[in-house]
Amino acid sequence: MIILVGSQKGGCGKSTIATNISAALAVKGEDVMLVDADKQASSSNWFLDRSENPSLPKVHSIQKYDDVRASVIDLNERYEYVVIDAAGRDSIELRTAMIVANAIVMPIRPSQFDLDTVPRMQEIYNDARILNSNLKFKAVITMGPTNPVIHESDEAKSFFENYPDILLLKTIIRERKVYRDAINGGGLGVVEMTNSKAKKEINDLLSEVL
Ligand SMILES: Nc1ncnc2c1ncn2[C@@H]1O[C@H](COP(=O)(O)OP(=O)(O)OP(=O)(O)O)[C@@H](O)[C@H]1O
Ligand SMILES: [Mg+2]
């Protein structure tokens, strides 16, 4: 299964989601290949840190740029799950990955600036669907406020009612320090740490994506 984590918005949490779902799959004993298709190399750096600790469940990783289709199709024959972290813009990596993926997961912060990018993502999705009619489009709210009096996540939910092709996942990934600690702390996933709320968020997200 090919899972693309993509958005044309920078900084919305793509690498955080891609690395965390990869780690969560590895913890479940699944064979996972994390493809870093962003020259910023955030996922590759996470993978290098993780590789220093051989006792962690194995995540494989590779960097692929430009037209990623052939490489991703080949990797999908060899690994049960291929997770792609694509650059945060309308890139050739994002577009070519969309042509071969089973699902695109678009992280979106509950802010107007992020929501403003959805119409363009819908257009890119429409283009990809011409060649990949089975492509599923899922959106996940990330960095949602943990303060219950802030209703930004609810506003984002009603926004998506205008986009019937996009399935807004029930899981909300909240703004939590543990997500930053997991990246800074040796290439971990939050499922390998002690914050049970974050752990549940990632496991719930994974069940909704698979
Ligand atoms: N749920 C979260 N809670 C707290 N911090 C988060 C969360 N998700 C992401 N971050 C932090 O926000 C920043 C951006 O996240 P990340 O690098 O995953 O986004 P990105 O979409 O991959 O960015 P880019 O477009 O630069 O590739 C990072 O510092 C990351 O640690
Ligand atoms: Mg990134």
Shape: globular
Gyration radius (Cα, Å) is 16 Å
Distance from N terminus to C terminus (CA atoms, Å) equals: 8 Å
Q: How many strand elements? A: 7
Q: Quickly count the helices.
A: 9
Proportion of residues in extended strands = 15-25%
Structural domains: how many: 1
CATH architecture: 3-Layer(aba) Sandwich
Return the string of H and E elements. Answer: EHEHEHEHEHHEHEHH
Largest sheet: 7 strands, parallel
Mean pLDDT, as a whole number? Answer: 96
User: CATH superfamily assignment?
Assistant: P-loop containing nucleotide triphosphate hydrolases
Low-confidence stretches: none
Characteristic key phrases:
210 residues, alpha/beta, Rossmann fold, seven-stranded parallel β-sheet, 9 helices, 43% helix, binds adenosine-5'-triphosphate, binds magnesium ion
Give a description of the structure.
This protein has 210 residues and is of the alpha/beta class. It has one domain (2-209): P-loop containing nucleotide triphosphate hydrolases (Rossmann fold). It has nine helices and seven strands, in the order βαβαβαβαβααβαβαα. The chain has a seven-stranded parallel β-sheet, with helices on both faces. α1 packs across α9. The chain starts with a strand and ends with a helix.
Would you summarize the structure shown here?
43% of the residues lie in helices and 21% in strands.
